[in-house]
Amino acid sequence: MIKDNLTQLRQRIARSCARAGRQEAEVTIVAVSKGRGAEEIKEAIGAGITDIAENRVQEALLKYKQLSGYRFSVIGSRGIPNTEHRAPSTENSIKWHLVGHLQTNKARDAVRIFDLIHSVDSLRLAEEINKQAAKMNKTQDVLLEVKTSPETTKFGVKPEEAPALLERIGALANIKVRGLMTIAPLVDNPEQARPYFQALRRLRDKIYDLRITHYDLRILSMGMTDDFEAAIEEGVTMIRIGRGI
Ligand SMILES: *Cc1c(COP(=O)(O)O)cnc(C)c1O
Protein backbone atom coordinates (compact mmCIF):
# COMPACT_ATOMS: atom_id res chain seq x y z
CA MET A 1 0.00 0.00 0.00
CA ILE A 2 2.65 2.52 1.10
CA LYS A 3 4.87 1.17 -1.63
CA ASP A 4 2.15 1.73 -4.23
CA ASN A 5 1.44 5.20 -2.90
CA LEU A 6 5.10 6.06 -3.19
CA THR A 7 5.26 4.74 -6.73
CA GLN A 8 2.35 6.99 -7.69
CA LEU A 9 3.84 9.92 -5.81
CA ARG A 10 7.16 9.53 -7.60
CA GLN A 11 5.34 9.47 -10.94
CA ARG A 12 3.58 12.73 -10.08
CA ILE A 13 6.92 14.25 -9.04
CA ALA A 14 8.57 13.06 -12.25
CA ARG A 15 5.82 14.63 -14.38
CA SER A 16 6.06 17.96 -12.53
CA CYS A 17 9.82 18.01 -12.77
CA ALA A 18 9.62 17.32 -16.50
CA ARG A 19 7.17 20.20 -16.92
CA ALA A 20 9.39 22.51 -14.87
CA GLY A 21 12.63 21.41 -16.51
CA ARG A 22 14.02 20.19 -13.20
CA GLN A 23 15.77 17.01 -12.08
CA GLU A 24 13.85 14.67 -9.77
CA ALA A 25 16.93 14.49 -7.55
CA GLU A 26 16.47 18.18 -6.70
CA VAL A 27 13.24 17.38 -4.83
CA THR A 28 13.43 15.49 -1.54
CA ILE A 29 10.31 13.72 -0.30
CA VAL A 30 9.96 14.36 3.41
CA ALA A 31 7.47 11.76 4.67
CA VAL A 32 5.28 13.28 7.38
CA SER A 33 4.50 10.39 9.73
CA LYS A 34 2.28 12.08 12.29
CA GLY A 35 -0.45 9.69 13.38
CA ARG A 36 1.29 6.76 11.68
CA GLY A 37 2.93 3.86 13.46
CA ALA A 38 6.52 2.66 13.52
CA GLU A 39 5.67 -0.28 11.27
CA GLU A 40 4.35 2.05 8.58
CA ILE A 41 7.48 4.17 8.86
CA LYS A 42 9.61 1.06 8.38
CA GLU A 43 7.53 0.22 5.32
CA ALA A 44 8.18 3.67 3.90
CA ILE A 45 11.90 3.35 4.62
CA GLY A 46 11.84 -0.04 2.91
CA ALA A 47 10.36 1.68 -0.13
CA GLY A 48 13.21 4.17 -0.25
CA ILE A 49 12.14 7.02 2.04
CA THR A 50 15.15 8.61 3.76
CA ASP A 51 13.52 11.60 5.44
CA ILE A 52 10.89 11.27 8.17
CA ALA A 53 9.02 14.22 9.68
CA GLU A 54 6.88 14.67 12.75
CA ASN A 55 5.03 17.74 13.86
CA ARG A 56 5.15 17.09 17.59
CA VAL A 57 8.28 16.44 19.63
CA GLN A 58 6.58 14.03 22.04
CA GLU A 59 5.30 11.78 19.25
CA ALA A 60 8.66 11.91 17.51
CA LEU A 61 10.54 10.84 20.64
CA LEU A 62 8.35 7.77 20.94
CA LYS A 63 8.86 6.66 17.35
CA TYR A 64 12.54 7.54 17.41
CA LYS A 65 12.86 5.08 20.27
CA GLN A 66 10.71 2.42 18.60
CA LEU A 67 12.79 2.69 15.47
CA SER A 68 16.07 2.38 17.32
CA GLY A 69 17.37 -0.07 14.72
CA TYR A 70 16.62 2.55 12.10
CA ARG A 71 17.93 5.37 14.23
CA PHE A 72 20.66 6.81 12.07
CA SER A 73 19.82 10.44 12.51
CA VAL A 74 23.15 11.68 13.82
CA ILE A 75 25.16 10.46 10.90
CA GLY A 76 26.54 13.35 8.99
CA SER A 77 25.63 15.81 11.70
CA ARG A 78 28.42 17.07 13.83
CA GLY A 79 28.36 14.51 16.55
CA ILE A 80 26.24 14.21 19.62
CA PRO A 81 28.80 13.01 22.16
CA ASN A 82 26.45 10.59 23.89
CA THR A 83 27.13 7.21 22.28
CA GLU A 84 23.57 6.17 23.07
CA HIS A 85 22.51 8.31 20.14
CA ARG A 86 25.19 7.17 17.79
CA ALA A 87 24.31 4.54 15.23
CA PRO A 88 26.55 2.56 12.93
CA SER A 89 27.36 4.13 9.65
CA THR A 90 25.10 2.86 6.92
CA GLU A 91 23.90 3.84 3.49
CA ASN A 92 20.41 3.45 4.84
CA SER A 93 20.69 6.54 7.02
CA ILE A 94 17.45 8.23 8.03
CA LYS A 95 17.06 11.93 8.67
CA TRP A 96 14.49 13.20 11.15
CA HIS A 97 12.66 16.47 10.58
CA LEU A 98 10.46 18.56 12.83
CA VAL A 99 7.80 20.35 10.78
CA GLY A 100 5.42 21.46 13.54
CA HIS A 101 5.67 24.38 15.94
CA LEU A 102 8.39 24.05 18.59
CA GLN A 103 7.99 25.39 22.12
CA THR A 104 11.18 26.54 23.80
CA ASN A 105 10.70 24.07 26.65
CA LYS A 106 10.93 21.20 24.11
CA ALA A 107 14.03 22.55 22.40
CA ARG A 108 16.37 20.22 24.25
CA ASP A 109 14.57 17.07 23.08
CA ALA A 110 14.22 18.50 19.60
CA VAL A 111 17.94 19.19 19.29
CA ARG A 112 18.67 15.70 20.57
CA ILE A 113 16.79 13.89 17.80
CA PHE A 114 16.15 16.11 14.79
CA ASP A 115 18.50 16.66 11.90
CA LEU A 116 16.47 19.58 10.59
CA ILE A 117 14.00 21.78 12.47
CA HIS A 118 11.73 23.50 9.91
CA SER A 119 9.86 25.77 12.32
CA VAL A 120 12.17 28.42 13.75
CA ASP A 121 10.27 31.70 13.83
CA SER A 122 11.66 33.77 16.67
CA LEU A 123 14.98 34.86 18.08
CA ARG A 124 14.00 33.46 21.46
CA LEU A 125 13.49 29.97 20.03
CA ALA A 126 16.69 30.20 17.99
CA GLU A 127 18.64 31.19 21.09
CA GLU A 128 17.26 28.27 23.07
CA ILE A 129 18.07 25.82 20.25
CA ASN A 130 21.55 27.32 20.06
CA LYS A 131 22.04 26.91 23.80
CA GLN A 132 20.93 23.27 23.82
CA ALA A 133 22.95 22.47 20.71
CA ALA A 134 26.06 23.99 22.30
CA LYS A 135 25.63 21.69 25.31
CA MET A 136 25.51 18.68 22.98
CA ASN A 137 28.40 19.94 20.91
CA LYS A 138 26.16 19.92 17.86
CA THR A 139 25.41 22.43 15.13
CA GLN A 140 21.65 22.34 14.65
CA ASP A 141 20.38 22.80 11.10
CA VAL A 142 17.13 24.76 10.93
CA LEU A 143 14.80 26.48 8.50
CA LEU A 144 13.11 29.79 9.09
CA GLU A 145 9.32 29.37 9.04
CA VAL A 146 7.75 32.24 7.14
CA LYS A 147 4.11 33.21 7.30
CA THR A 148 3.40 33.87 3.62
CA SER A 149 -0.33 34.14 4.26
CA PRO A 150 -1.85 36.06 7.16
CA GLU A 151 -4.65 33.52 7.61
CA THR A 152 -2.68 30.24 7.64
CA THR A 153 -1.38 29.69 11.16
CA LYS A 154 -0.31 31.72 14.11
CA PHE A 155 3.25 30.61 13.51
CA GLY A 156 5.97 31.86 11.24
CA VAL A 157 7.86 35.11 10.96
CA LYS A 158 6.40 37.84 8.77
CA PRO A 159 8.29 38.09 5.47
CA GLU A 160 9.35 41.67 6.17
CA GLU A 161 10.84 40.59 9.50
CA ALA A 162 12.78 37.63 8.12
CA PRO A 163 15.95 39.50 7.06
CA ALA A 164 16.49 41.06 10.49
CA LEU A 165 15.86 37.76 12.24
CA LEU A 166 18.32 35.98 9.97
CA GLU A 167 20.93 38.57 10.78
CA ARG A 168 20.45 38.02 14.51
CA ILE A 169 20.52 34.23 14.23
CA GLY A 170 23.69 34.56 12.18
CA ALA A 171 25.50 35.56 15.36
CA LEU A 172 24.68 32.24 17.09
CA ALA A 173 27.44 29.66 16.82
CA ASN A 174 25.56 26.36 17.18
CA ILE A 175 22.63 26.90 14.85
CA LYS A 176 22.72 27.06 11.08
CA VAL A 177 19.88 28.31 8.88
CA ARG A 178 19.70 26.19 5.75
CA GLY A 179 16.64 27.73 4.10
CA LEU A 180 13.01 28.76 4.40
CA MET A 181 9.77 26.93 5.08
CA THR A 182 6.15 27.91 4.63
CA ILE A 183 2.73 26.37 5.11
CA ALA A 184 0.25 27.50 2.46
CA PRO A 185 -3.39 27.93 3.46
CA LEU A 186 -5.83 25.15 2.66
CA VAL A 187 -7.25 25.83 -0.77
CA ASP A 188 -9.75 24.08 -3.04
CA ASN A 189 -7.54 24.20 -6.07
CA PRO A 190 -3.78 23.54 -5.79
CA GLU A 191 -3.12 26.44 -8.16
CA GLN A 192 -4.35 28.77 -5.45
CA ALA A 193 -1.38 27.77 -3.28
CA ARG A 194 1.12 28.92 -5.89
CA PRO A 195 1.34 32.60 -4.81
CA TYR A 196 2.51 31.51 -1.35
CA PHE A 197 5.23 29.34 -2.82
CA GLN A 198 6.28 32.18 -5.10
CA ALA A 199 6.36 34.50 -2.12
CA LEU A 200 8.75 32.20 -0.27
CA ARG A 201 11.09 31.84 -3.22
CA ARG A 202 11.08 35.58 -3.88
CA LEU A 203 11.81 36.28 -0.24
CA ARG A 204 14.82 33.96 -0.42
CA ASP A 205 16.04 35.71 -3.57
CA LYS A 206 15.55 39.10 -1.96
CA ILE A 207 17.53 38.04 1.10
CA TYR A 208 20.35 36.99 -1.22
CA ASP A 209 20.18 40.36 -2.99
CA LEU A 210 20.34 42.22 0.30
CA ARG A 211 23.45 40.22 1.26
CA ILE A 212 22.41 40.32 4.88
CA THR A 213 23.34 36.74 5.70
CA HIS A 214 26.28 34.43 5.18
CA TYR A 215 23.90 31.46 5.09
CA ASP A 216 23.36 29.40 1.99
CA LEU A 217 19.55 29.27 2.00
CA ARG A 218 19.39 26.40 -0.42
CA ILE A 219 16.42 24.58 1.10
CA LEU A 220 12.85 25.62 0.34
CA SER A 221 10.36 23.49 2.30
CA MET A 222 6.86 23.95 0.92
CA GLY A 223 4.05 21.96 -0.69
CA MET A 224 2.05 19.04 0.65
CA THR A 225 0.03 16.17 -0.84
CA ASP A 226 -2.54 18.34 -2.59
CA ASP A 227 -0.39 21.16 -3.85
CA PHE A 228 3.21 20.04 -4.26
CA GLU A 229 3.10 20.20 -8.05
CA ALA A 230 2.91 23.98 -7.95
CA ALA A 231 5.71 23.99 -5.37
CA ILE A 232 7.94 21.97 -7.71
CA GLU A 233 7.33 24.48 -10.48
CA GLU A 234 8.26 27.27 -8.05
CA GLY A 235 11.60 25.78 -7.08
CA VAL A 236 10.92 23.68 -3.98
CA THR A 237 13.66 21.38 -2.68
CA MET A 238 11.69 19.62 0.11
CA ILE A 239 8.06 18.61 -0.21
CA ARG A 240 6.29 17.46 2.97
CA ILE A 241 3.96 14.58 2.18
CA GLY A 242 1.65 12.93 4.69
CA ARG A 243 -1.63 11.61 3.24
CA GLY A 244 -0.08 10.93 -0.14
CA ILE A 245 2.06 8.17 1.40
C1 LIG B 1 0.77 17.10 8.19
C2 LIG B 1 1.70 18.06 7.62
C3 LIG B 1 2.12 17.93 6.29
C4 LIG B 1 1.61 16.85 5.36
O1 LIG B 1 0.34 17.16 4.90
P1 LIG B 1 -0.44 16.22 3.84
O2 LIG B 1 -1.49 17.13 3.32
O3 LIG B 1 -0.94 15.07 4.62
O4 LIG B 1 0.54 15.83 2.80
C5 LIG B 1 3.05 18.86 5.83
N1 LIG B 1 3.52 19.86 6.60
C6 LIG B 1 3.13 20.01 7.88
C7 LIG B 1 3.69 21.12 8.67
C8 LIG B 1 2.21 19.12 8.42
O5 LIG B 1 1.82 19.29 9.70
What features would you describe in this structure?
The chain has 245 residues and is an alpha/beta fold. Helix content is 36%, strand content 16%. The protein contains eight helices and eight strands; from the N terminus they run H-E-H-E-H-E-H-E-H-E-H-E-H-E-H-E. It has an eight-stranded parallel β-sheet. Residues 71-92 have low confidence and may be disordered. Pyridoxal-5'-phosphate (PLP) binds next to strand 8.
Alpha-beta content class: alpha/beta
The whole-number mean of residue pLDDT values reads 90
Distance between the termini: 9 Å
**Low-confidence runs (pLDDT<50, min 5 residues)?**
71-92
SSE layout and pairing:
Blueprint: H1 2-20, E1 28-32, H2 38-46, E2 51-54, H3 57-66, E3 95-98, H4 107-113, E4 116-120, H5 123-135, E5 140-145, H6 162-169, E6 175-181, H7 194-210, E7 219-221, H8 228-233, E8 238-241
Helix pairs in contact: 4-5
The chain binds pyridoxal-5'-phosphate.
Pyridoxal-5'-phosphate binds at residues 32, 34, 55, 99-100, 183, 224-226, 240-244.
Summarize it:
This protein is α/β, with parallel strands linked by helices and 245 residues long. Helices cover 36% and strands 16% of the residues. It has an 8-stranded parallel beta sheet with strand order 7-6-5-4-3-2-1-8.
Describe this protein with a few key phrases.
8-stranded parallel beta sheet, 36% helix, 245 residues, 8 helices, alpha/beta
